[in-house]
Design goal:
CATH superfamily: NAD(P)-binding Rossmann-like Domain
Order of helices and strands: EHEEHEHEHHEHHHE
Keywords: Oxidoreductase
InterPro entries: NAD(P)-bd_dom_sf, SDR_fam
Number of domains: 1
Family: Belongs to the short-chain dehydrogenases/reductases (SDR) family.
CATH class: Alpha Beta
Distance between the termini: 33 Å
Structural class: alpha/beta
Strand order of the largest sheet: 3-2-1-4-5-6-7
Largest sheet: 7 strands, parallel
CATH architecture: 3-Layer(aba) Sandwich
GO molecular function: oxidoreductase activity, acting on the CH-OH group of donors, NAD or NADP as acceptor
Number of strands: 7
Strand content: 5-15%
Protein name: SDR family NAD(P)-dependent oxidoreductase
Bound molecules: nicotinamide-adenine-dinucleotide
Amino acid sequence: MSPVGGGMSPLDDGLAGARVLVTGAAGGIGAAVADAFVEAGSAVVASDVAGLPRDSGARATVRADLRSAADRTRLLAATAEELGGLDVVAHLAGVLRRREIDEVTEDDWDLQHDVNLKASFFLLRDAAELMRRQGTGGRLVAATSQGWWSGGYGGSSVYAASKGGLVSLCRGLARTYGPAGITVNTVAPGAVDTAMLTDDLSEQALAGIVSATPLGRLGTAQEVASAVLFLGSARASFVTAATLNVSGGWLAY
Ligand SMILES: NC(=O)c1ccc[n+]([C@@H]2O[C@H](COP(=O)([O-])OP(=O)(O)OC[C@H]3O[C@@H](n4cnc5c(N)ncnc54)[C@H](O)[C@@H]3O)[C@@H](O)[C@H]2O)c1
């Protein structure tokens, strides 16, 4: 069974043999997601603008800057060729530039919106079109952030706006591609222990987040990967247009 089916055993995830593209796979969460799909028996193409390890268990690695239309086209074509099609896109690539609000530049705005929102639209739309042509349905899972709901903390308003746009976008894509059996969902991590979170937040700021989190700690990349795998699997066959809150209760909605 492929992940796009459903209605079989609730324990059957359909991930063995599923054809999966993971973006942001050199990052903390993306690497954990790629590893988890590999462990589940999926055939994975791992992509990032940064260099990727060759021994990750992925079937292939493709270096691509998702802001480039040519790179996106090359990435989807290479993935479909390598895997013989495409069932799941786990889109983890993203950028965060923390800035005091009065210091935000147009360059900060453009970078975050180009990667997090514009590139996401064209990548996910083109992946959905590929899946629609295949006629076998599919799964699109994208990483938003708690900021989509909270507006962001610690100089991340512009990032939060891009991630809010991503949620709206994925809901629109879910409505558009639902009739083709393609589900589109987002995962909203809270504070997860990766470079993106810890690189430019003070110990004091991190401690403040932890104390506001009912589970009393940062999340791990593997915990976000579990949520992405669920949404990418047959187990989530009737879930679409959803935003899964993976924040340890930091957000409550
Ligand atoms: N870590 C957290 O606490 C947290 C919280 C909420 C949301 N998120 C989201 O989860 C996702 C993964 O975050 P992470 O913590 O692993 O961050 P990370 O910085 O470790 O990984 C992000 C990856 O995206 C890649 N990337 C950036 N620009 C790109 C581009 N133009 N083309 C292709 N790849 C590009 C980077 O090279 C990097 O490897 C991101 O979308 C992030 O916004 C993370």
